[in-house]
Amino acid sequence: MNETTLDLKGLKCPLPALKTRKALRRLASGDRLTVLTTDPMAEIDIPHLCREDGHTLLATEKTATGHSFLLAKGD
């Protein structure tokens, strides 16, 4: 299992969700992706993307500047 971090701080909606989806496509099933964002909409968009595309949202954390999301790629 690989773990990757995607730093999307400074990007505005819809770019964090679009770039997260693109990054997940390059991963193997079960790989983990940490996404760092400053866009407040990501708190809604990233969990929605996971539900829509069949990925697992393992953790969400508020950070000093935004959010950190830990995702596991689905099948």
UniProtKB/TrEMBL annotation:
Organism: Roseibium marinum
Name this polypeptide is given: tRNA 2-thiouridine synthesizing protein A
Gene3D superfamilies to which the protein is assigned, alphabetical: TusA-like domain
Highest taxon in the source lineage: Bacteria
Domain named UPF0033: residues: 6-30
InterPro entries: TusA-like (IPR001455), TusA-like_sf (IPR036868)
Family stated for the protein in its record: Belongs to the sulfur carrier protein TusA family.
